[in-house]
Design brief:
The structure holds 2 protein chains of 2 kinds.
Chain A (H helix, E strand, L loop, with lengths): L10 E3 L5 E5 L4 E6 L2 E5 L1 H8 L7 H12 L3 H17 L4 E3 L8
Antiparallel strand pairs in A: 1-5, 2-3, 3-4
Helix pairs in contact in A: 2-3
Chain B lengths: L21 E5 L26 H14 L3 E5 L9 H10 L3 E6 L6 H7 L5 E6 L4 H8 L4 H15 L3 E7 L7 H10 L4 E6 L4 H4 L2 H4 L3 H17 L5 E5 L19 E4 L5 E2 L20 H7 L1 H4 L25 H8 L15 H12 L18
Parallel strand pairs in B: 1-2, 1-8, 2-3, 3-4, 4-5, 5-6, 6-7
Antiparallel strand pairs in B: 8-9
Classes of the chains: A alpha+beta, B alpha/beta.
């Protein structure tokens, strides 16, 4: 359900068709998506750069806490809010459970 | 006569020039479909005048250097170009986000595979919810079945897809089924765009103009679906222009963020700009793209707000909608500076409403299809 907290075990990722881009002409970082260009602030860029489709949300938060020496509650709140908004816009997907047995 | 090289609007006021964000590349005006609301000009460009793939590649590099981030490959039908994969690859190599706007007709599974990893996103047009409606509107028998096949191939390859439903009086009552179809095709987005009555659509106002009741119901359908599909599918909705109180900010402001390149290389501030008499448009075959963007008289003509007459000049919305659509102002008021008659503050608004209501009350189903007259040879 939309609006719920994202589970710490979920693995967030940028789906195909959504990607980070270094806009050298304007000197900014942007997220490119269908019909959308979103300018990223340093926090947004830091969060999205950590999404590798392998690590869980909890692991991403932990990495950011270490890197920015910030309290987990604050980072967790920022990450939840930011990713939830992008999920509602279909720019971030979640891998909820581990993949089934490999063929 | 002016020696001053600073960019100036149509009345000689200095303007500020920003950076373009998005470019629409109309690769060709050829198209197997004949949709009666086609956004191409009524005077279509011939195949022999089209830019070659290498010319497009050069345009894409210039665009990326100027700050363009997103490229829309459109037409006509871009798949009507046999060298589409070569053109799309050049766009990707220039660093652009590549969006392919297509009816699907002309794409095969093999051609889609060539575009895998090259095209970021596919926008598939929808003319109707079943073969009967879609083939009638597109003027092309079998188009719906082919389109659905292309959608399945694209989904299997993994392309992210937006369904682009163009709605009007003949199909607007089936909007909820269009949304269901997009969901069934795993689309992340559906764009529901009411016909804009320029160009070909202007020739089809009587069969296509939606009624007020339809527009009201469509709004309710969209609101309900947005709630239900939140987090699963995004719905972008462009309501009927003629039933609004304020105009849309056309192109987000003239010459502010977007540009179009026509099949023959003519560079336009919007796809209908050639309907504005007195504006001269330059061609990338003759002038570098950046110079056209910065110094081109047509691009500067309506930049900023200094050119606006009343009621726009003193309107608090002048930097929200920029007075609306210049082409619509030209068409109705005979002056491209005028307030878009869609605006309730335009002196022509009541007339526009009355005409739209009369057209919507028509029971005409006679369509004027978009057709290219045969190319003369020898």
């Amino acid at each position: 359900m939309s609006g719920d907290r994202i589970s710490g075990a979920a693995v967030p990722y940028l789906p195909r068709g959504v990607r980070l881009h270094d806009d050298r002409v304007r000197g900014i970082r942007v997220l490119l998506a269908p019909e959308r260009v979103i300018q990223l602030d340093p926090v947004g860029h830091a969060i999205l750069s950590e999404l590798d489709g392998k690590r869980s949300l909890a692991e991403v938060v932990l990495t950011l806490c270490t890197r920015y020496e910030a309290p987990p509650e604050q980072i967790e709140g920022d990450v939840q809010e930011f990713l939830r908004d992008l999920m509602d816009r279909r720019m971030v997907f979640l891998e909820q459970e581990p993949e089934g047995a490999q063929p | 006569m002016r020696d001053d090289p600073a960019p100036r609007d149509i009345d000689g006021n200095p303007v500020r020039v920003g950076l373009p964000m998005a470019m629409l590349a109309e690769l060709t005006h050829r198209c197997p479909l004949a949709c009666p609301y086609c956004s191409n000009p009524v005077e279509l460009t011939r195949a022999s005048a089209e830019l070659k793939a290498a010319e497009w590649a050069d345009v894409f590099r210039q665009a990326a250097e100027m700050g363009v981030l997103q490229l829309h490959l459109s037409g006509g039908e871009p798949a009507s170009r046999r060298d589409l994969a070569e053109i799309a690859t050049a766009a990707r190599d220039a660093g652009l986000y590549v969006n392919l706007i297509t009816s699907g007709i002309g794409l095969t599974e093999a051609r889609l595979r060539e575009l895998d990893g090259v095209v970021d996103h596919i926008q598939l047009s929808l003319q109707g919810i079943d073969a009967e409606m879609a083939d009638w509107i597109s003027g092309y028998g079998g188009s719906f079945a082919r389109k659905m096949q292309v959608a399945q191939w694209a989904r299997a390859i993994g392309f992210p897809m937006t369904l682009n439903a163009v709605v009007h009086r003949q199909n607007l009552d089936r909007l909820s089924e269009m949304i269901d179809l997009a969901e069934g095709l795993d689309c992340r987005r559906i764009e529901v765009a009411t016909v804009q009555f320029h160009g070909w659509a202007d020739l089809n106002r009587r069969p296509l103009m939606p009624t007020q009741e339809q527009a009201t119901r469509a709004r309710a359908v969209v609101d309900e679906a947005r709630q239900r599909l939140k987090g699963r599918m995004v719905i972008d909705y462009v309501p009927a222009d003629h039933l609004a109180s304020f105009p849309k900010s056309c192109m987000g402001g003239w010459g502010s963020t977007g540009l179009n390149v026509a099949p023959d290389g003519t560079v336009l501030p919007c796809h209908a700009a050639q309907t504005i008499k007195g504006l001269a448009f330059e061609n990338v075959r003759d002038v570098p793209l950046a110079r056209i963007w910065h110094d081109g008289a047509a691009f500067n003509a309506f930049r900023g707000t200094a050119w606006m007459p009343e009621p726009c000049a003193s309107c608090e919305r002048r930097e929200i909608d920029f007075g609306g659509c210049r082409c619509q102002a030209m068409a109705m008021a005979g002056d491209a500076r005028a307030t878009d008659p869609v605006c309730s503050r335009s002196s022509l608004h009541a007339q526009l409403r009355a005409e739209a209501e009369a057209e919507a009350a028509s029971d005409s189903t006679v369509l004027v299809y978009r057709r290219m007259t045969r190319e003369k040879r020898g």
